[in-house]
Every structure is written in C-alpha cells, then in structure tokens.
Amino acid sequence: MSAFSGQRLDKIPAHVPPELVYEYDIARDARMLEDPHARMHSLIREAPPIFFSPCNGGQWLVTGKKAVVDITTNPALFSNSNPGGQKEATAGLSLLPISVDPPQHSMYRAPLNQMLSAKSVAGLETAIRAMTNELIDKVLAAGRCDFLPDIAEPLPVTLFLKLAGMPTNRLAEFRELALQAASATVDPETRAGTFKRIAGILAETIQARQEKREDDLVSRLLDANLDGRNPTFQEMMGYSILLFLGGLDTVVNALCFGVRHLARDQELQAKLRADPSLLPGAIEELLRLYGVASLPRRVTRDEVFHGVQFKQGDALLLLLPAANYDDAAFPNPEQFTLGRTEQHMTFNTGPHRCVGLNLARLEMKVFYQEWLKRVPPFRLDPEKKPRFAGGFTLALTSLPLVWGE
Ligand code: HEM
C-alpha cells in the first residue's frame, strides 16, 4: 500500500471487490514523489491492471496497456466529456476537441489534423532552432543551469506565442500563467481565476484576428470549416486554451525527464553526439520510458469490462506512464532500448491521440540536436537533487545540471 495523505472515500462503493482496491494518491504518494517512473513501474507489478483507489475522491486507475487501449478506443462506454470536472477548472469553457466524444469529435479535430500535420509544422523548424539557441546562449558559459526554468519552460511557451501569433514580450506573463494552470497543488478557485486570465488574453488575440487575419494558427482556425460553418467565438476560445495547455506542461516535462536520463547516461550522450541520426529513435524511447500525462474518463453505463464491474458515473484515470512499463508489450520495460517496434502510450491512442505530436517531436528533435552539439557532456548537479511532482502530469520541479568542470 502506498503512503496516503489526501481526500479519500470513507466507504468503498459496493460494486468494487476488495481484491481490486489499492491505495494510490496521484499527487501525494511518497514513492511517486521519490521517483515517479520507478513508482509507475512498481504500480504495474503490484496492483491489478485496473484497480480502485479510495484516494482523490475514489476512482479506477488503469495501468495495463491493453486495458488502456481498449478504454480509449471505446468512447461510447468511456466518455471524455468533462470526465474529471475540467469544465469547473477551466471557468466553464469546453476545451476543444478534447472534451467532445465521437462522432462530433471528428468535426472539431479535422482542422487541427491539417494545421499540425508533419508537413505544416516543418515550417517552424528554423524558429524552434533559433529559440533553442537563444536559451542555450544564456546558460552555456556558466557551466550550469536549472534546466526547468532556464530551458524547458520558456521553449514551448515561446513557441506557443509564435504559433498563436502573440507578441513574445508577453513571455514572462504567459509562463507564470502556464505554471499556475499546471500546478497540482493550487486550489480550484485560484485555478479558475488563472483560466479566466488566460481566456482574457486569448480573447484579445481572437478579436484582433477577427478584424485582421495574420499568418498564425488563430487566423487559420477562424476560417476552419466545421461542417459548413466557421467556429463560434466560444469554440475559438475552447481551441485556443487547449492548444496553450496541451503543448506546455507535456513538452516541458518530457524534455526534463529525457535530459535527466541523458545526464545520468554519459555513454548514451556520447553515442547521440557521435551519430545524431539516432535521435528520432532515442526520443521515442525516452518518451516511452518517461510518459507524463494521465487521462481522465467517465463510465457512461453499467457494464462489465475486462472482468471489472463498472457503474455509470465511475471516474477512471488512465496511467499512460505505467502502461509504458507493461512487460506484455515492452520486454525489459525499465531498460532504454533503441529500435523497439511496439507503439508507446505517451501520446495515447484512439480518437483523442495527441494531435500535437508532430510539433512535440520536432521541438524535441531540434532541441536535442542543438543541446548535444553545443553543451559539453553534462550531468546532474551532485550538490542539488532533482525534485518531482505528481497529479495528472508527472513533473520535475527542478533539474540542476552542470558541465565542463
Ligand atoms: C511531449 C509532448 C506531448 C505529450 C506527451 C502529449 C500528450 C497528449 C495525450 C496523452 C493526449 C490524449 C488526451 C486524451 O486522450 O484524453 C493529447 C491530446 C492532445 N494534445 Fe498533446 N501532448 C504533447 C504535446 C502537444 C503539443 C505540442 C500540442 C499543441 C500543439 C498538443 C495538443 C494536444 C491536443 C489539442 C490534444 C487533444 C486532441 C483531441 O482531443 O483530439 N499536445 N496529448
């Protein structure tokens, strides 16, 4: 049993059998805070692939890869429409397209498929390279940095501002809002206030683009074809907020965990420096080893699924980082192995599979190319330990690195 300190149910619901109960607090579990991915690995070995935790108000947690795939590809039974109370958290706004189930989902998703295709995002490569190099310039001579605030946070925020067509001089303000929005510990009222501020800023951009189109995502979305009409203002807000949030926390943490792995594996660093063509494969394996997002779903009707009795309204959380350690899919799952062919779960699967994955992969490829080219062999700062956080996203809260001493 995990250490527990958090809101929990006094009673286990009658339809949950005792053998499926295992306490796991997604934000406060002590072993998770010690090493999130080691904890994900232990969870999939110690708990059933679908188990019920009384923590966090009581919910089902899913770790087995097959169970996750079967759930995310069955949206009629496992809905994504406000499954974890996001509407309350986002000041009443529906995030698009994530909070819409099929069949309506495909109408909302289609414009993003086009705008974020590999071909469309390729045009951003030069800008990403320039942003990465500017950030490296600021830390290189010092021989040390805290990778999180110095590189991993500013990079995706700057890119979002550029994509959305917003002035990069709002970087500091946006970074702060992004941090507040992503915080696992912030109270619901403060979170709703943060969303209102983000919404206010995005509304200004949408209004400006309604008057005059530019070469950016907001302009293209305004002209998107939703079954013969253009998106309403509310729909534009739903898209913009999700694009802002979707590409921040996830990229920040994927970069941090990947760089932490390299900081502890000098041989792999040397191998990738010597042969950068290995990078795309290495990035996929780092994404598998260090999944970040866990996804909420809500059961739509009473049904037995994978041998488990679910009741309408039950909450689920799909622990994608744990599913990546399922040894039925990934032999020796804790090992970094180039050339695996099985698809990892970090971007999920099914209708909501990450639509930003081409951009995320491009950001990471360009980042690693430049970082490995310019920064000498780097390692964890022996004086300062990395710190972690949990919740819907596994995160580092600090990653001090040193090089060249
Ligand atoms: C390493 C970085 C990233 C990771 C790990 C990640 C992960 C995910 C996951 C797991 C989902 C599925 C959600 C669900 O099924 O409920 C998702 C969806 C989504 N992601 Fe990402 N993401 C990343 C980067 C990005 C970026 C850069 C963007 C923005 C350009 C983005 C935008 C979105 C959007 C809009 C959706 C919703 C898709 C839909 O509902 O059809 N993501 N992401």
Automatic annotation (TrEMBL):
Gene3D superfamilies: Cytochrome P450. GO terms for molecular function: heme binding; iron ion binding; monooxygenase activity; oxidoreductase activity, acting on paired donors, with incorporation or reduction of molecular oxygen. Pfam families: p450. InterPro entries: Cyt_P450, Cyt_P450_B, Cyt_P450_CS, Cyt_P450_sf, Transaldolase_AS. GO terms for biological process: carbohydrate metabolic process. It comes from the Bacteria. Coiled coil: none annotated. The keyword Heme applies. Keywords: Heme, Iron, Metal-binding, Monooxygenase, Oxidoreductase. Belongs to the cytochrome P450 family. This is Cytochrome. It comes from Cystobacter ferrugineus.
